[in-house]
């Protein structure tokens, strides 16, 4: 689909304006229920179609059927997908997931979308979905955060710190940061099953080393350093000002349904912490909890489409 842009005023700086880019799949806005799909750290607004990163879930006659729903996906400002220089994030101080959620609501209002049928996203995208729900508890019918949580854990913040150190000090920052990140996105069982200790004699390296090198070089070819720094920074801002008491208070005001989805092998947002969130809100909200069983770790939200479909199909 064509990439569109909307100029909006920054919610943190009335002088600053940003060009928020987005894509629409399916019926035109205003003609069908709207499903907002939020992308993850290195993702973008291209969620469906030939090269869409969630094309197994979104499209004609698929789980999120673009014959019935209008799918709207924004680009996080500064992710580089729109090649918009003015969106380059230099000062990260006020660049938070809550800020991004405010951008999205400002854009939705400008697009005359008063009610959103569903907000769904995995990882960072799911965290932004949480932030959107906190800001507007009466405008979302279905909140579906996958492999994420409403608040960053110390484990996640520590890994973001390591990523920052690599990005600021390495001679090949994106490549090296991505190599580290891949082991946070996966898990030991999946890595061991995938490579089985194989050694590539012609390259004089282990297959797992070759795989990490490939992912590092691939990201280097499609991502700018400033963009990676900004997206990585967002992870540690998730729910920065929120406590469990805030979550309880919010759950009593949220009028929609909540479907939490965890991955049992997730090292980035553990199943245990997501289940704790569910236990906190279940008495105050219409909420359900489901687990994806996978050896692929955090990345299961990009891989286990059959399991995700079984969980979310009842909403679509």
General description of the model:
- By secondary structure, this protein is of the alpha/beta class.
- The protein folds into two domains: 4-152 and 238-315, Rossmann fold (3-Layer(aba) Sandwich), CATH 3.40.50; 154-235, Rna Polymerase Sigma Factor, Chain: A.
- It contains ten helices and twelve strands.
- It has helices spanning 97-110, 124-135, 154-169, 173-185, 188-195, 207-222, 225-236, 244-251, 271-281, 305-312; strands spanning 4-9, 17-25, 34-38, 58-59, 64-65, 70-74, 116-122, 140-146, 199-200, 205-206, 257-263, 286-292.
- It has an eight-stranded mixed β-sheet, with helices on both faces.
- Helix 2 links the parallel strand 7 and strand 8.
- Helix 3 (154-169) runs antiparallel to helix 4 and helix 4 (173-185) packs across helix 6.
- The mean pLDDT is 95.
């Amino acid at each position: 689909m064509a990439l569109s842009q909307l100029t909006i005023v920054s919610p943190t700086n009335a002088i600053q304006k940003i060009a928020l880019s987005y894509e629409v799949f399916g019926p035109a806005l205003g003609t069908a229920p709207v499903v907002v799909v939020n992308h993850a750290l290195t993702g973008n607004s291209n969620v469906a179609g030939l090269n869409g990163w969630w094309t197994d879930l979104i499209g004609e006659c698929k789980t999120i059927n673009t014959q019935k729903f209008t799918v709207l996906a924004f680009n996080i400002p500064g992710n580089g997908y729109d090649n918009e220089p003015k969106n380059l994030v230099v000062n990260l101080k006020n660049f938070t997931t809550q800020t991004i959620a405010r951008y999205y609501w400002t854009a939705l209002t400008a697009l005359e979308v008063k009610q959103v049928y569903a907000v769904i996203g995995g990882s960072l995208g799911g965290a932004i979905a949480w932030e959107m729900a906190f800001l507007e508890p009466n405008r979302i019918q279905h909140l579906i955060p996958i492999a994420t949580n409403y608040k960053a854990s110390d484990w996640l913040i520590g890994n973001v710190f390591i990523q920052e150190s690599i990005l600021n000090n390495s001679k090949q920052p994106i490549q090296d940061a991505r190599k580290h990140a891949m082991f946070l996105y996966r898990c030991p069982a999946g890595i061991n099953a995938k490579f089985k200790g194989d050694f590539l004699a012609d390259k004089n390296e282990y297959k797992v080393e070759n795989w990490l090198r490939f992912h590092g070089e691939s990201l280097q070819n499609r991502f700018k350093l400033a963009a990676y720094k900004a997206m990585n920074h967002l992870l540690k801002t998730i729910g920065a000002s929120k406590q469990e008491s805030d979550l309880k208070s919010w759950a009593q005001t949220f009028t929609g349904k909540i479907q939490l989805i965890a991955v049992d092998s997730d090292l980035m947002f553990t199943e245990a912490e997501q289940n704790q969130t569910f236990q906190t809100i279940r008495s105050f909200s219409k909420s359900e909890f489901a687990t994806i069983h996978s050896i692929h770790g955090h990345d299961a939200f990009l891989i286990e489409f059959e399991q995700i479909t079984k969980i979310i199909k009842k909403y679509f």
